[in-house]
Structures are given as C-alpha cells and as structure tokens.
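Make up an example, fold above all:
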Amino acid sequence: MEFGDLKNDIVIQEKLTNFHNSVEKIELMLEKLKSADVYEQLSVSEKVDYDLFVAYTLNTLYWLYLRTQNEDPNKNEVKSQLNRIKEYMVKAKQARERHTIRPRVDKPAAERFIKHGINYSRSEDNTPTLIKKIRFED
C-alpha cells in the first residue's frame, strides 16, 4: 500500500494496514460462507449454529457500515435484528443443554424414600411387610 502524504505517520499506517488486513479476512470468510459444500455436511445443530453465525455476522457488518456512513445504527432496524438473533442464540444454547444436561434419578435414594414413605419393615425371613397404622378411636 502507498501512503503518499502519510508516509511519515507510522500510527496511521499501522491502523490502515490492520484495517486492510481485516477487510481481506472478512472477504475470505464471506467466500467460505457462500460455499454450499460445507453446509450440506453439517449436522442439524451445527447448521443452526452456522445460520446464527452468518446472520449475526452480516447484521454486524451492516451495523459497521452504518457507523462509517455517520448514521446511528441504534435508530435503524439492524439493532432490533441483532437483538433478535441474540435471543435465538440463547434458545439454541438452551436446546443444546437440554439434551446434554439431564437430571439423573438416584435410584437407591428414591427406593429409600418410597420404603420409608410406605412404612415397610423387614420380617425375620428378610421379606418386606407392610406395617399397618393403628387408629385409636376416642
């Protein structure tokens, strides 16, 4: 890159170089996003993550574009779209966690609760028998 009048200002040269490199990385990423081959090989949960990533990325790029045009992106529809995508990201995470983090039943503890709740006792031959409660009439 030629900097012309800015050849003596190293700070601006570094910032412009970083900006140029970032734009090139974004262009490469967008080219990869356009590839349908990768998308077809993904599982359903990966497709959800991929779609959310693409939607969020494109809306963020548009938000940045509005900032460069000296417009307030908070007054634009893009802000509500970004919030909506964030809500869907949370929902996708909850759905993923629902399948991975499930409560487990502690079977011995449940048996103890049931045993003591029903009032069983063991007889001499070690078989459970039901203890009947005796009611006294006044």
User: Anything to note?
Assistant: The first helix runs from residue 10 to 34. Residues 110 and 116 are 10 Å apart (CA to CA). The mean pLDDT is 80. The two ends are 103 Å apart (CA to CA).
